[in-house]
């Protein structure tokens, strides 16, 4: 949790080593409050699709609240009821938590891993804090909290094993996979197919018509980038994902647009080579690899039979490539 930076370059922030015992307790209280809210946010984020995991994170939020109450009681014992305002961002060598808008974009596995990291960070903080206090009661409390956090480094996984039966865990994993496919794989695959196939005809028609690698490169770049922008905006605009369950339109548009552009750039960039036939030979090889990569992705993630995917992609792409080459050559 502490990076142990020797000094801060940001004015107004203090080093952990300069905090008083009262400030350390105040920092621990605010940190537990933040972690409890983060776990509650995880629970809200997961409630619709992963209700069992949401229950787990609500239990973790309750544990953090118990830590907070113990720390407040210790502060009242030693320093009275008024707790100074000091938060993570006020301390230069204290690791910050991810904001909520980043948490919204985490998948289930990433959220579980983030929870384990948070527990490990908290344990390191309490171990360092215990070394900074001379009061026996405070030292005992901080040591106990450090030990508790160490035991809880895998708390998310332990609670998952206790709360999620085999069927619930399998169903949540299937839901997570389905959401990933709908949000990232499917739009990206559609973009890769469009970028790889639709740009074949103009690029190779230009290549065989001009025999000029530079002109072919410019046409290829324009076709790939233009197709990427068009596909990205189309994907993002036509479905907000609320009814279809396909997830964020921004994510889908980004996946579709980037993969469309990459699909076209793959066989355009070989024309950076000034020798025409060398560039064309490499471009043909890239096309071959692109089309078979699409077949593999369709079979791996979309469960499309290999024969059908091959007919749809490889045969279709070959016909488009032949059409462009014939038109340019004629």
TrEMBL record:
It is found in: Endomembrane system. Keywords: Membrane, Transmembrane, Transmembrane helix. It comes from the Bacteria. NCBIfam families: FeExpMbfA. Pfam families: Rubrerythrin, VIT1. The chain crosses the membrane at residues 184-209, 215-233, 279-297, 309-328. The keyword Transmembrane helix applies. Gene3D superfamilies: 1.20.1260.10. This is Rubrerythrin family protein. Residues 23-159 form the Rubrerythrin diiron-binding domain. It is a multi-pass membrane protein.
